[in-house]
Amino acid sequence: MNVLPEWDISSVITKYKLLHNRGRAKAFGQHFLTNKNLLQKIASAALPFENCTILEIGPGPCGLTDAIYSLCGDSKLICIEKDNNLEQLHSDFMQDRNNIEFIYDDATNISIPKLTSNNVIVVANLPYNAGTAILMHLLKFRKQIKRLVLMLQHEVAQRIAANVGTKEYGRLSVLVQLVCKTELLFNVHASAFTPPPKVLSTVIRLTPYRIDIDLQDVDSIVSRCFTHRRKMINKHVPLDILQKCCIQPSQRPETITPDQFLQLAQLCKFSNFI
Fold first, then answer.
1. Are 42 and 149 in contact, with CB atoms under 8 Å apart?
2. What residue spans define the domains of the chain?
3. Number of continuous H segments (helices) and E segments (strands) in the chain
4. Are 171 and 223 in contact (CB under 8 A)?
5. Which residues contact residue 240 at a Cβ distance below 8 angstroms, ignoring those fewer than 6 apart?
6. Residues of the chain where predicted confidence (pLDDT) is lower than 50
7. Tell me: the pLDDT tens digits for 109-130?
8. Which one, of 257, 175, 248, lies nearest residue 217 by Cα?
9. Lower CB count within 10 Å: N or C terminus of the chain?
């Protein structure tokens, strides 16, 4: 464990005037988690860190970064930050720390194989306004990812882990559950943030399965079906394909399991329907 001078997030926020430009903070979806116990709890949920590279999305004032770094041992920590106005803050953070790198780019632009050839563990407090897009981009590299521990808007986390037949079950549920074991870990209330958001947050852990699935093909069917989720499935998929999958024409999309959607996508592609 690395023993370093305390990195106090509230002091950092004040020193670097991170709340002075609320327009920029709003644009980047910035709500800074300041509760040290919660930061440590999130970092610990991603353990163990041996024989991997750790990837953090959106380090901001380095609260979670500091918690991860205290646990990472010899593993390299790479931080992806969209807001390059934080470059001086990050430079100061690195003064007493090694084996850490900051890259200034949109997380949806990164290619994990270009960053490292190692297996990767992703830890992130994702911005509310881009969390789903970042997650779906990261899942393109799931063969290289050991696990993801993510803090998301509670509503998004509920949709990811939703059971078939519930109102939360939809496109995101199907796509993520097909390729990852999904665990809801704990909620984080608005009072833990500066400034406090208007929504509840939830930390989830995703562990990719070692299977080869073309999510783009599945998404083409799933998106078509859930665009009009109250319509019966035969309005979206030909009857002969439904019959081969043992799906009733009168079923609605929210009653169809992720595995059934995968079968539908494979048959639709084979039949040149997609």
1. yes
2. 9-208, 215-270
3. 12, 9
4. yes
5. none
6. 1-2
7. 999 999 999 999 999 999 888 9
8. 175
9. N
**DSSP state at residue 157:** H
- For the CA atoms of 40, 42, 47, 52, the dihedral, rounded to the nearest 10 degrees, stands at -100
Side chain identity at residue 21, one-letter code: N
Q: Which SS3 state, helix, strand or coil, does residue 219 take? A: helix
Beta bridge partner(s), residue 77: 54, 100
Local structure of residue 143 (DSSP, 8 states): G
Q: CA 16 to CA 158: how far, in whole Å?
A: 34
Distance, CA of 4 to chain centre: 29
Please tell me the CATH code under which domain 215-270 is placed: 1.10.8.100
72 and 121 Cβ atoms separated by less than 8 Å: no
Which 3 state secondary structure label does DSSP give 14? Answer: helix
Are 43 and 123 a contacting pair, CB within 8 Å?
yes
Whether a cis peptide bond, with omega within 30° of 0, leads into 48 is yes
Q: What's the whole-model pTM score?
A: 0.93
User: Residues 6 or more apart from 113 whose CB is under 8 A from it?
Assistant: 141, 144
Cα–Cα distance between 136 and 3 in angstroms, integer? 35
Q: 134 and 56 in contact (C-beta within 8 Å)? A: no
Instruction: Say what the pLDDT of residue 271 is.
Output: 84
Q: Which tokens sit at 271?
A: 């039949």
Instruction: Report the C-alpha gap between 251 and 171 in whole angstroms.
Output: 16
Strands 193-194 and 120-125: unpaired
Residue identified by tokens 């959106």 is: 58
* Single-letter code of the amino acid located at 36: K
Which tokens in the block code for residue 16? 């670097």
For position 1, what pLDDT does the model report?
46
CATH annotation of 9-208: 3.40.50.150
